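Task 17 of the worksheet. Students: predict the tertiary structure of the chain below and write it out as structure tokens. Keep your answer in the requested format; marks are given for formatting as well as content.
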Amino acid sequence: MNLASVDLNLLVHFDVLMREKNVTRAAESLNITQPAMSNILRRLRKTFNDPLLIRSSEGMTPTERARELEPLVRQALASIDSLLEPMSEFKPLTSKRVFRIMTSDYAEATLVPRMVKAVRSEAPNVVLDFLTPSDVSYVDMEQGRIDLAINRFNEIPQSFHQVVVWHDSYSCLISAKSPIAGELNFKNYIGAQHIWVSKTGLGAGFGMNPDQAGGLGWIDQSLKRLGFKRNISVFTRHYQMPALLAANADLIATLPTRVAQMQSGNDDIVMSEPPFYIPEFELTMAWSPLLQHNPAHRWLRQLIMHVARQLIQSEEEEALLTSNRRIRSGKPSSR
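Model answer:
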């Protein structure tokens, strides 16, 4: 089989069949008859030498080969669309476009405020609709109903485009009244009570089980490798709560450093490095291949990455100034 011998319209029909998983509904979507759609399915099976869709108790079930082909075909169709459609210039100053963006609490606390300010400055009539991870699915993203997802992902479909926005480490917040505020070590950390904050992913969350420490995230997985676990007293899904709760003298909140640094001006809170190694994590921006070449979408992605680079640069400059002040004062360096 070679490209010259293949009717490329079959790829369009394959894409619709995989979305609908029903010959009759696929025919209705394409405005053709059901017998014509059945004939197209036979041609697809011959082209790919695979049944592709098999009848089951739940309807038409894709074969393993069909699932492998689906993202590749969809990406190919998106590329062809971008070649055929005229590229209109995006004018942010006058645009009234709505961008729907899924963000985690972490991204909302750290990136979104600066991002909104930048968008409002360049595109005052653009509307930003922020959604939570539990509001959307990978299917919503894949089909372009969601413009962007900004989150920490354990895994993501290979067909998606993605870019790392930044890396972040972890820090501890402790009440200034705590007896261990000035000497946080591993023994004190394990002996204390803790606040747990979820690493938010797509899909609805469920109640947590304190006995399943290894499944609670990066912090507890790192402790499990050392043969220890935290005593967790408070479970929360929001990054805004721990800063308040950490004001209790018997609690420690271990948070992403950029979130913890928001309490740098709070005299009631002390920030310390964790007394053990926790791997850094990535904040990632992901989007559907259907939107890769869209001018408005490309503008938004570039703006977000510019905002992220500005934030990183300002942090580096502030860290350098703080270090220089400590050197001049003769104080030891700390976070």
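Marker's comment: Residues 200-208 have pLDDT under 50 and may be disordered. The two ends are 62 Å apart (CA to CA).
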